[in-house]
Design goal:
The protein is mainly α and about 90 residues long. The chain has a single domain, classed as Ribosomal protein S18 (30s Ribosomal Protein S18, Irregular), CATH 4.10.640.10. It contains 5 helices and no strands. The longest helix is centred in the middle third of the chain and has 16 residues. It is elongated and about 60 Å long. About 15% of the residues are buried.
């Protein structure tokens, strides 16, 4: 059920005004292993900082600091080859 107490916003707690898009380790905490942004209820961020986090993650993705999606894995957790690598492999055999 839960205690009913919200987590404090990590940025408000440290009195940070603006979320920096270049701080990749901090932004990774707000992105799931599948590459999706985590919600406010999970991260504990306030409305203002959650909006800044979303914009910072989008900007970091645009600058190739964060991936848009997670790497492809099979049901056992092994990393799969990318489709492009598979196509290149098939084309080289012809």
């Amino acid at each position: 059920m839960g205690s009913g107490r919200r987590k404090p916003c990590p940025y408000c707690k440290d009195k940070v005004e603006h979320v920096d898009w270049r701080d990749v380790p901090a932004l990774r905490r707000f992105v799931s292993d599948r590459g999706k942004l985590r919600g406010r209820r999970i991260t504990g961020a306030c409305r203002k900082h959650q909006s800044q986090i979303a914009n910072a993650v989008k900007r970091a993705r645009e600058m190739a600091l964060l991936p848009y999606v997670a790497e492809h894995r099979d049901h056992e957790g092994r990393q799969l080859k990318a489709d492009r690598e598979d196509r290149d492999e098939r084309d080289s055999r012809r």
